[in-house]
Amino acid sequence: MEAGGVHMKQTLLLLTAVFCAACSRERAGNTSASAYTSDSDSSAKAAGVEGTNSASELEAPRLIPAVQNQLNLMAAGREPTDPENLTAYKNLAGDVVNAMAADFNRAGLSDSGSFKALRDSVMDDLGGGAGMESKRDRSKLNEHIARMRRLISRYQQAMRSAGDRQ
Predict the structure, then answer these.
(1) Consecutive 10-residue runs of the chain (166 residues): their mean pLDDT?
(2) Domain boundaries along the sequence of the chain
(3) Which helix (DSSP H) or strand (DSSP E) does residue 19 occupy?
């Protein structure tokens, strides 16, 4: 009984962290009133439109620790098993993958195709993108963990090299 309570507390803590991160994406001070120039619109930044986000802050680094925590739990055999937890993990993974792609564009990096292929494989492991049913083949769990860790590593290396170029 006690072990179940610990897992529930860990799950609630993780979901709270994800919820807080999701709610902090768009800050009123960083966006314009236009739906077409919110957050990271490069033409609005180039034109210096007042009220439009002009920072080059990367999106994925603040999400990566939560994914790494889930990967560690899954590797230790404490993966999300019920549909709600699996869907929450799939959504978090999707957010990280999309943030990485946005960061690549923001940094002006081109993809030879290998990053996109790895990104697609990671999402296919979980049943595809948003709106698709969450699934995971337990026999391939270690492959998914390795792929996701490789994706994070490639992203971090690419962002470091982009920073070195500037």
Answers:
(1) 66 73 56 47 50 66 93 80 76 92 87 86 78 62 91 92 70
(2) 57-166
(3) helix 2-23
DSSP string, 94-132: HHHHHHHHHHHHHTT----SHHHHHHHHHHHHTTSSTTS
Note the pTM of the prediction, 2 decimals. 0.61
Angstrom distance (rounded) from CA 99 to CA 121: 16
Q: What are phi and psi of 118, to 5 degrees?
A: -65, -40
Fill in the amino acid letter for 140.
K
Q: Enter the tokens of residue 159.
A: 């962002």
Q: What is the CA radius of gyration of the chain?
A: 18
Contact yes or no for 73/44 (Cβ under 8 A)? no
